[in-house]
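Q: Predict the assembly, please.
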Amino acid sequence: MIEVVLNDRLGKKVRVKCNDDDTIGDLKKLVAAQTGTRADKIRIQKWYNIYKDHITLKDYEIHDGMGLELYYN
Amino acid sequence: MANRTDPAAKSIRGTNPQNLVEKIVRSKIYQNTYWKEQCFGLTAETLVDKAMELDHVGGTFGGNRKPTPFMCLVMKMLQIQPEKEIVIEFIKNDDYKYVRVLGAFYLRLTGSDTDVYQYLEPLYNDYRKIRRKLADGNFSLTHVDEVIDELLTKDYSCDIALPRIKKRWTLESIGTLEPRKSALEEDFEEEEDKEDAEQLDDGLEDDAHEKDYYRGRSPVRDRDKDRRHDSHRYRFLCTDSVQLRRIEIMIEAMIGNEDAGETETGTGIVIEKGKEDRDRDRDRDRYRLRDEKDYGRDRDRDRDWEGRDRERRDRDRGRRRSHSRSRSRSRDRKDRDGGDHRKRHRSSISPRRRDGAEDNSTREEAKKKKEKKEKKDDGTDHPDPEIAEANRLRASLGLKPLKV
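A: Predicted assembly structure:
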């Protein structure tokens, strides 16, 4: 289990517990459940890399305690 | 400002029509090249040409969520607000399916409740294929009637939150809308007549024979029959397991948890009550056979009958409740009488119980055991309450529990 921090820099910052073999899509669902924003309206990125839904956190080398950028669309 | 709304446009739901599209999607549309190149200065007439060129529907796609041309045209229509007649012509035209979907979508966004139902429901009979662009940029195949169904029953489509409309049956009960006529209506009536004639013969045949007979029946007639027997039967249709579980619990609470007329779970729940006489028992067996076989097909079809079924269900609710109360009383009596009734009851159940001829109590036990096991699996009994909570959430989303 790892914990990642997602920050939208507009006042929303969530810590999410997840497995490292969860996909980004799963992570979005978890964030959606915590924040109340639709999962398909969430975009997770790091600098200019927009993370794709079907790829796992492990493959993006997301580790425990890492921060990700949360955007909406 | 090219992106201004037509000054003559009426405000819809108390605001600028363009606000029906969320801010983020809206700005994405304004930035889009298709919008800038093709949608500039369109009028209601020239928009038709662009609509005819459409070859897919969809909301936004790709990493940075580009809007589809379909979305751009919806936006343009919101901007120039074509007259209602034009929109209805869009919907009525038979040659261009994407124009039709575009018109339907626009009407769903801006039209009144009755208009939405009145003009969109006939499109349930349009089975042409439609290409839809998914969020990841791939295409998938769907049909006009599916899109229409989504518009009428969901609150979200093509990355746009659709305005709420009243449910069909509320409109029907107010009297602003006629009950829906299905395109299959006439066929059913014919069948019904035919069946009435045949039913006289049915009564004479014995059980075993009848079972075979029913197995071979056409699904149409089966369902038709079903509809008529609905007065002492509820059927819930749901795919979502969480929802299913919830309904189960509700039902258990309602009928006091111990049932001779049993609740049955799986993809469809059948609850039967008030079985005093043999006749009804036999009826139920018939349903079971049918449910098992025809469930999937049935569900699709049921959509057609939804309005009607619901109405009937509502009507029955009152009657039902009193029914169940009287039943529980009669059950007590039955228990006092001894196992006689029950034995008979059990023996009549046979055909579906392949897996277990055990009675209800053992079945319930098995269910409980299963639940306990599940609990262990999904990690909601974790000592750390935070993790247990997270696991509960994950289970509800259909994800595996956290690895610790």
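Chain B is about 60% helix and 10% strand. Chain B touches chain A at residues 24-25, 28, 60, 63-65, 135-136, 156, 159, 386-387, 390, 393-394, 396-397, 399-400, 402-404 (CB under 8 Å).
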